[in-house]
């Protein structure tokens, strides 16, 4: 080992360098300093600006995959975990692979960015297309959408990971600095860019452009930034042939992304028809969810889909809402609280009972309520309940609203909320939530909960029952079977519905005199009991159990 500062010993001659001996190569790829068209300081600034933009685009791709997969496949915790873990793993592989490209860092970075722009920009459309045209209505990890999700996560992660060593090479060629300083500069720009992308996606891109267009625009920005950085700043590093290849590649990518952006509305309509059929009348994205109405005219049954799931089928909704509401109305019912149920159908059943003086509807999605008020078919189906002076709508999250609600204010509480297996609904099926509900009920008040399907998801159903009991209420679980097979086959809708009736004293499961017949309530209790699972722990905010 040669000590760099060793001094010659007395009487010892230092050997002169031999003619023709090469100097030690620089610590980067063997290329000399870059020949830039701008000053060194400006060059470094432009490279770091490129890092910022590329990092922002990369995070938008990640968030887009998580958001779209959560909507299409369900269980947002699982989707986020899969996307992020696969992507981080792939980034490590991409960094290792990109080491071989350091000798042609400029050309390699340009090619990586063009490919990343194309793959990332088209990822949302590809995932949505597979979901729409393959009929992937399975569980969280069944069907083509799940495989496409993993494939895109892997591809995008590989390309993002390949950026890091190539950018490090480029920034070192502008001005040589110690590795720690270069890494600090590079990662600072990268993390700040990720922050910008992470904030832009939910607050700017998603509400203004929607998922498909937002991703295409992100891919366009990615291609322009990567191409401009290489062709503008490092063009002297490229051969004439490489420059033309990179120009053509970027123009092709931009043309494909632009064509997709022009056709995105037609694509979305075609995909929506593939998912919901050709009878779509209303399709809108609210601040909370996607709302789609089909049918309701010319004698065709009306169907309401929320985030791709059949929530109301006009052919059988009356059976569901009668089973949900009427058993809970057996007793005092002057003051009724409906949680969710913005479609107004549960309220319709509540108002069929004499003696109801007040109905408060707590619904987060005000645009759904407005649709239920103004759409002719839906308002006829719900009996124009929002024109009744006894009905008051509160635009609020049910959990937060219950924390502020006066104690003992309601005789009946109807929890007409989405399935507990949907991650966004988990807190509305927690022990803490039912503890708040218990406090809002009057002394003899009754709570009824839509607890999801019984036959296909008995564990989730009986976890709801265990959770309600853990909040200090006594329960009677029951099920109603018979969803229309044709409606169920068109969606992920279950073939039965499960409910939990609860109160401080053990409730009696029957309907008040003079109300519509609810088919076989006693048989529904027996049907639920046949699936009973014992010893299940309650679901809490810090330990949700429905995905176990």
From TrEMBL:
Boundaries of every PABS domain copy: 261-504
Record-level Gene Ontology MF annotations: spermidine synthase activity
Binding site residues for spermidine: 321, 343
Reactions listed under catalytic activity: S-adenosyl 3-(methylsulfanyl)propylamine + putrescine = S-methyl-5'-thioadenosine + spermidine + H(+)
Keyword Ribonucleoprotein attributed: no
Entry membrane topology: Multi-pass membrane protein
Family per record: Belongs to the spermidine/spermine synthase family.
Function text: Catalyzes the irreversible transfer of a propylamine group from the amino donor S-adenosylmethioninamine (decarboxy-AdoMet) to putrescine (1,4-diaminobutane) to yield spermidine.
Protein name as catalogued: Polyamine aminopropyltransferase
Organism from which the protein derives: Streptomyces umbrinus
């Amino acid at each position: 080992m040669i000590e760099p500062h060793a001094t010659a010993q007395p009487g010892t001659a230092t050997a002169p360098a031999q003619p023709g001996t090469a100097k030690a190569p620089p610590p980067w790829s063997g290329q000399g300093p870059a020949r830039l068209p701008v000053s060194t300081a400006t060059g470094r600034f432009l490279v770091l600006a490129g890092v910022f933009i590329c990092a922002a685009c990369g995070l938008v791709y990640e968030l887009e995959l998580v958001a779209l997969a959560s909507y299409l496949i369900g269980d947002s915790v699982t989707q986020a975990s899969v996307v992020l873990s696969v992507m981080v793993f792939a980034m490590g592989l991409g960094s290792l692979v990109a080491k071989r490209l350091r000798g042609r860092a400029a050309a390699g970075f340009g090619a990586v960015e063009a490919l990343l722009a194309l793959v990332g920009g088209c990822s949302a459309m590809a995932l949505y297309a597979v979901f729409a045209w393959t009929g992937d209505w399975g569980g969280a990890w069944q069907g083509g959408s799940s495989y496409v999700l993993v494939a895109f996560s892997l591809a995008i992660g590989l390309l993002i990971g390949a950026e890091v060593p190539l950018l490090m090479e480029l920034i070192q060629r502008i001005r040589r600095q110690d590795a720690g300083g270069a890494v600090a500069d590079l990662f600072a720009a990268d993390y700040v860019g990720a922050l910008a992308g992470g904030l832009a996606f939910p607050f700017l891109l998603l509400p203004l452009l929607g998922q498909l267009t937002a991703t295409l625009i992100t891919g366009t920005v990615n291609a322009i930034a990567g191409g401009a950085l290489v062709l503008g700043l490092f063009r002297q590093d490229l051969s004439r042939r490489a420059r033309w290849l990179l120009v053509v590649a970027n123009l092709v990518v931009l043309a494909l992304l632009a064509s997709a952006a022009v056709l995105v509305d037609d694509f979305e309509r075609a995909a929506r028809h593939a998912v919901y059929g050709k009878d779509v009348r209303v399709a809108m994205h609210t601040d909370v969810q996607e709302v789609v109405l089909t049918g309701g005219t010319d004698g065709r049954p009306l169907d309401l889909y929320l985030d791709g799931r059949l929530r109301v089928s006009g052919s059988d909704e009356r059976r569901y809402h009668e089973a949900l509401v009427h058993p809970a109305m057996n007793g005092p019912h002057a003051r009724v609280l409906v949680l969710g149920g913005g479609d107004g159908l549960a309220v319709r059943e509540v108002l069929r009972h004499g003696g109801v003086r007040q109905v408060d509807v707590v619904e987060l999605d005000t645009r759904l309520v407005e649709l239920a008020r103004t759409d002719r078919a839906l308002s006829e189906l719900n009996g124009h309940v929002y024109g009744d002076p006894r009905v008051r709508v509160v635009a609020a999250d049910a959990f937060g609203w219950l924390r502020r609600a006066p104690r003992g204010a309601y005789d009946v509480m109807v929890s007409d909320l989405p399935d507990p297996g949907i991650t966004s609904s988990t807190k509305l099926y927690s022990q803490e939530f039912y503890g708040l509900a218990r406090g809002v009920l009057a002394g003899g008040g009754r709570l009824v909960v839509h607890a999801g399907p019984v036959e296909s998801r008995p564990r989730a159903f009986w976890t709801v029952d265990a959770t309600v009991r853990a909040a200090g209420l006594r329960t009677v679980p029951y099920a109603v079977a018979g969803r229309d097979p044709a409606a169920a086959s068109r969606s992920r809708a279950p073939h039965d519905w499960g409910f939990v009736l609860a109160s401080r004293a053990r409730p009696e499961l029957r309907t008040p005199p003079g109300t519509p017949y609810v088919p076989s309530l006693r048989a529904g209790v027996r049907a639920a009991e046949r699936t009973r699972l014992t010893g299940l722990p309650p679901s809490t905010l810090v330990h949700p159990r429905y995905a176990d």
